[in-house]
Fold this sequence. Notes:
The chain is mostly beta strands.
Amino acid sequence: MLIDFMGYSADCLLSGKVELTAPSLSDMLNDTPIVHLTNVVLEDLVDARRITAATYTLHRDELYAVRQTGPAGSRLRPAGTVPRRMQAQIGPYNVLGRLNGVPGSMPMIGLDSRGPMLPLADATIAYVVGGILEVRDAARMLINRDLLSWVRAADLEPEPEDAGVALGRMYGVSG
Length: 175
């Protein structure tokens, strides 16, 4: 099955078509490190210049994020999990979304036990292209766990006392 592909790399956006060789795009990207695209448009993040190519091959390690299209697959919402809001910085991209986790656990625990491409629901990705801030929503997005600069739970607020203690330590004040 040929599906639309929208990927985010270190220096460009990639759009085109990909032949789905697994039940879902997340399954395919987690199982296969090489992606073969057709009818490709690459858009440079710096100057928004576009280049087209009939075919393009890239390695999963070059993908910071991918808008998931096609069938959802079985890994999007495993049984017994709950969606938790999280925020991540992946190269030039800031991503917000819902990551499924075990009820009662911290949402970021166990990230390293999952596949390299983490599925998010209700995602928003923000980045600058050609000097203009772009913010895009996606029902489903995959982010590359191995390229994360940082990740945090977006729905947990620090306790006011914790923030004060942290600030005191930062400025050398004990309390």
